[in-house]
Write a structure and sequence with these properties.
- By secondary structure, this protein is α+β, with helices and mostly antiparallel strands.
- The chain is built from 7 helices and 8 strands, in the order αβαβββαβααβαβαβ.
- Strand 3 and strand 4 form a beta hairpin.
């Protein structure tokens, strides 16, 4: 009986440690650094749910949007690509769009030398159109594509993050999400199933970054 109790206590402790590990520690604004990546759950309806369903984020969090931090003086800005195109906006404006916590990721030390060049690249992209088609190399950017390209450019054309074949189908099924069928019918182009791409969930699990906390 004593051995059983000890094993039970060990199992409970293991479960608790896993649960604690899945919860990001709370950050203060002063803890954010230029180059940090912020992952966001927008709750924008069927499209966001479809994005989140095909690629789970860090510790199974749902992420449908992301941006990159730039500190300037005492201000904190976020670089992002949205329907209005590439822009830099205040952290408060970025965060208030969602009721969920923001999850912050930070490049591992050996990659941080790329941050200044990546920030410079972002400044050059202000106003570039949003990539409605989610296609590579078309001169436009969706949210995670903007970050991918910024660091690729900073590394002299060598990708820092990994691209994966995109899917617009329900997990475990050969059927497309209805929202994507309707979306691409309106764009009058084929669904780019299998085309290399990236999304916030995938980047949040990259081995090139460490999740440092939540806001």
């Amino acid at each position: 009986m004593q051995i059983f109790k000890l094993r039970l206590l060990f199992l409970i402790a293991l479960i608790n440690s896993i649960a604690v590990g899945a919860a990001a520690q709370r950050l203060n604004l002063k803890d954010l650094k230029t180059g940090d990546l912020l992952f966001q759950n927008l709750d924008c309806g069927d499209m966001c749910e479809a994005i989140e369903a095909v690629t789970r984020g860090w510790h199974k969090h749902d992420f449908s949007h992301m941006g990159m931090v730039e500190r300037e003086g005492g201000n904190i800005y976020i670089w992002e690509s949205v329907a209005a195109g590439v822009r830099r906006l205040a952290l408060d404006s970025f965060s208030k769009r969602s009721a969920h916590q923001l999850i912050a990721g930070r490049l591992k030390r050996r990659y941080r030398k790329l941050i200044p060049s990546a920030i410079g690249y972002l400044h050059q992209q202000i106003g570039v159109a949003y990539d409605l088609a989610f296609l590579p190399d078309n001169g436009k950017f969706y949210c995670s594509e903007l970050i991918y390209e910024a660091f690729k450019n900073a590394a002299g054309g060598k990708p820092l993050f990994k691209l994966e074949p995109m899917t617009f189908k329900r997990p475990g099924s050969d059927e497309y999400f209805p929202v994507w069928e309707k979306y691409y019918q309106q764009l009058e182009i084929p669904i780019p199933e299998g085309v290399p791409g990236c999304n916030p969930g995938g980047l949040s699990r990259s081995r090139k970054i460490t999740i440092v906390g939540s806001l």
